[in-house]
TrEMBL record:
Protein family per UniProt: Belongs to the isochorismatase family.
Organism: Stenotrophomonas nitritireducens
Domain called Isochorismatase-like: residue spans: 31-85
Source species, domain of life: Bacteria
Name of one Pfam family that matches: Isochorismatase
Coiled-coil zones: none
Lineage of source species: Bacteria, Pseudomonadati, Pseudomonadota, Gammaproteobacteria, Lysobacterales
Keyword Hydrolase: yes
Record flagged with keyword Glycosyltransferase: no
Gene Ontology MF term list: metal ion binding; nicotinamidase activity
Pathway: Cofactor biosynthesis; nicotinate biosynthesis; nicotinate from nicotinamide: step 1/1
Enzyme Commission number(s): 3.5.1.19
An example Gene Ontology biological process: pyridine nucleotide biosynthetic process
Annotated protein name in UniProt: nicotinamidase
Keywords: Hydrolase, Metal-binding, Pyridine nucleotide biosynthesis
């Protein structure tokens, strides 16, 4: 493997995004190093998929966009914790300028 990414190493904090940890005790969201690693390699676009659509994949997509990547969210290759969250997830993606690919 070229990269082993460790996330969710603090037992007191859930971590959804591949790019940043969730809020820590000081209110910060420490970077995992993924954005820097991708930027160093000239990667400009990321495609996201997996579980769970409305948490981990959504947060990773949003953080990727904030980090300057063009993001494609592969909707059909994700599944939510709850389908009741699908509309909210779509709105959040559109507001972040993330392309939803079906």
């Amino acid at each position: 493997a070229d990269l082993i990414l460790r996330k969710g190493t603090d037992r007191q904090v859930d971590s959804y995004s591949a790019f940043r940890e969730n809020f820590g005790p000081q209110g910060d969201r420490p970077a995992t190093g993924l954005a820097g690693w991708l930027h160093e390699r000239g990667i400009a676009e990321v495609h996201v998929c997996g579980l769970a659509r409305d948490y981990c994949v959504l947060w990773s997509a949003q953080d990727a966009a904030i980090s300057g990547f063009r993001v494609r969210f592969l909707w059909e290759l994700t599944r939510p914790v709850s389908a009741d969250n699908d509309e909210t997830t779509r709105i959040a993606l559109v507001e972040a300028g993330i392309e939803i690919e079906k």
